[in-house]
Design goal:
The protein starts with 8 loop residues before the first strand and ends in an 8-residue tail after the last strand. Strands 1-10-7-12-6-5-2 form a seven-stranded antiparallel beta sheet. A three-stranded antiparallel beta sheet has the order 9-8-11, with no helix packed on it. Strands 3-4 form a two-stranded antiparallel sheet. The chain has three helices and twelve strands. By secondary structure, the chain is α+β, with helices and mostly antiparallel strands. It has helices at residues 17-29, 72-95, 133-137; strands at 9-11, 33-34, 37-40, 47-50, 59-65, 105-116, 138-145, 155-157, 162-164, 171-175, 182-184, 192-201. The protein is 20% helix and 31% strand. The model has no long low-confidence stretch (mean pLDDT 88).
């Protein structure tokens, strides 16, 4: 085990060039929607999906399910991603053995495939653990860069002053909590593609019943 104080793990070469291109072609062939984000409203307990390009500016494929693909291509992509997540989550657990001693976690069935045109990014600093029941079950985040971006385009983690470059096939896993606020860095000249989702606890008493 090695000492890693930021708990951000990088697994390069998780998807091949051919697999990345397959997913990118799938994204480009779809009718994309503006990406939104969940946020609390002034009404206690009410969470709503907000579309605000000043905060999050991207195009994405609507919620797709890992085991419930609506078309053959989606099922193929879900199979690719599940293979990566099984391997990388096992490696993450070996590096951070304490993560295997809490409530068991597994990939959430939903994930997003996103396209960021030049100048677009998830501009706002944020974490992935929100106040709604689904958000509070998130314990880890996964993200796979589908293409290499050389003109910025990475991901910045403010707590650690660490920036990750967008590299084709690179899978990154990190905790979903307030300890890991992050944002995307826009590229002024290049388009970035990613697939991203979460690992969630199997059960949290009082929240999942």
């Amino acid at each position: 085990m090695r000492n890693n104080t930021d708990f951000i793990e990088v697994f390069d070469g998780s998807l091949s060039t051919e697999e990345c291109k397959y997913i990118i072609n799938y994204i480009d062939d779809k009718e994309l929607i503006r990406g939104g984000f969940n946020a609390s409203t002034r009404t206690p307990g009410v969470i709503e999906n907000i579309v605000d390009p000043k905060e999050k500016d991207c195009w994405q494929v609507e919620h797709t399910y890992l085991n419930k693909g609506s078309d053959d291509e989606s099922k193929i992509i879900s199979g690719m991603l599940m293979q990566v997540l099984r391997k990388t989550s096992k490696s993450y657990g070996k590096i951070h053995s304490e993560s295997m001693q809490v409530i068991p976690w597994h990939p959430y069935e939903g994930y997003n495939m996103q396209k960021y045109d030049p100048g677009q990014a998830y501009h706002g600093l944020h974490c992935e653990n929100y106040g709604d029941p689904v958000g509070t079950q998130r314990c880890l985040v996964w993200m796979i860069y589908l293409n290499t971006v050389k003109d910025n385009g990475g991901t910045y983690f403010s707590n650690y002053n660490r920036t990750l470059d967008a590299v084709e096939g690179r899978c990154v896993i990190w905790p979903a909590y307030w300890t890991h606020f992050h944002k995307g860095i826009p590229s002024p000249t290049e388009t970035k593609y990613i697939a991203t989702g979460w690992f969630v606890h199997q059960e949290i008493p009082g929240l999942t019943k």
